[in-house]
C-alpha cells in the first residue's frame, strides 16, 4: 500500500513539475487564455452572427451623406495579396486566375476597451462565430474556394476591425480582341460585388498589395503563353441619365420601384501573348512552304499537271493551317492578323497556279502566230514567252511572299518593343 502511494505521488509530482517548468510551459500563456476567454464570453454573450452591423436608419432614395447625424457608410475592402494566371480559353473567351485575397470590414459590436482585458488588442476565432459579408464574384463562370469549410478563421481587433484570408480560383468572362493574333494584348476584369446592400449604406473599396508590383514578383504571375503586363484596381460608378442614381458597379436591379445596388470591386489585368509558338509552328513554316511551292510551280521542265499538284498541295496545307488557327480564337467578326497572313499566302499560290495555266494557254495560242512571220521582235517575244516569263513571275511572287513574311515579323518586333 505504501509502495502504491509512493508511485502515485511520484507520478503527480512529475506532472506538477512539468506544468510549472518554465522551459516547457509559460504560465503567462494560461493567463492570456483566461483573459481571452473572459473577453470572448462578454463579446459573444448577446452577439447575433446572423445580423449585419450595417446602419439602416437611412432613406435609400436620398443622396449619400444627406443625414449628417448618421455614421459614415459601412466600409468593406477587398485586398488583393497575390494573383496567378492559370489559363486563357480564347474560343470560350474565358480567363482563369487564382486570387489570394483579404477581406476587411468593421463590426462595432465586436469592439472593447483593451485596458479592461490586460491590453488584449486582437484575437482569432472561427469565421462562423461572427457576421461576415457575402463576397460574390460578379459575371463569372465558375469560382472555387480552396479554404476548408470547417476551418475558416478571422482576426478581430479591439476597434471592431475584422479581416480574413481567401484563396479562390475564378473563371471570368473576358471579351477578347483577336485582330492582332498572335501578337494580341487582352484586358480582362475580375469583378467582385457585395449584393443586397444599398449604395447609401455601404461603400466597397479595393486595394492591391504593393509587394506584388515588384518586377520579379510580377513576372511569376503569368504563365508560359501569357505575360502579365499590368494590374490595376478600381470601383466603378455607373451613371444614368434618368436620375435613377449612381452606383459603384456595372449593374442595377430594380425591385418594387426601389434601387437594389450591387457594388463592384474590379481588378483589371492586362496580358500579352507570347507569340514564339505561332512564329515557329505556323508563320515560318508557312513562309517556307509557300516559297518552295512557288519554285515547284515554276520549275522548268516539269509538266503542267505536276505543277498544279504542287500548287494544290500548298492550298490544302494553308487551308489546314487556317483550320488549326480557327480552333484557337473566338468566332468574332474580326479576321486575326495570322489569318490575314495565311490568306495572303493562299492568294499568292492561287495567283501562281493561274499564271502557270495562263502562260501555257498563251504559248499554245501565240507561238503559231509568231512563227507565221519571222522578225527579230517576234523572235524576242517568243523567247520571252519561254522560261524568262516564268522566272519573272516566280521572282515577283517570291518577293510578295517575302514581303508578307517580313510584315508579320515586323509586328512581332513591334510587339516586343
Automatic annotation (TrEMBL):
InterPro entries registered for this protein in UniProt: Neur_chan_lig-bd (IPR006202), Neur_chan_lig-bd_sf (IPR036734), Neur_channel (IPR006201), Neuro-gated_channel_TM_sf (IPR036719), Neuro_actylchol_rec (IPR038050), Neurotrans-gated_channel_TM (IPR006029), Neurotransmitter_ion_chnl_CS (IPR018000)
A cellular-component GO term for this protein: membrane
Main localization, broad class: membrane
Residue span(s) of domain Neurotransmitter-gated ion-channel ligand-binding: 37-237
Membrane topology according to the record: Multi-pass membrane protein
Highest rank taxon of the organism: Eukaryota
Keywords: Ion channel, Ion transport, Membrane, Transmembrane, Transmembrane helix, Transport
Transmembrane segments: 277-299, 308-326, 338-359, 391-413
Pfam family, one: Neur_chan_LBD
Alphabetized SUPFAM superfamilies for the sequence: Neurotransmitter-gated ion-channel transmembrane pore (SSF90112), Nicotinic receptor ligand binding domain-like (SSF63712)
GO molecular function term, any single one: extracellular ligand-gated monoatomic ion channel activity
Residue intervals of the Neurotransmitter-gated ion-channel transmembrane domain: 282-385
Keyword hit for Oxidoreductase: no
Protein family: Belongs to the ligand-gated ion channel (TC 1.A.9) family.
Record's protein name: CRE-LGC-19 protein
Organism of derivation: Caenorhabditis remanei
Name of the encoding gene: Cre-lgc-19
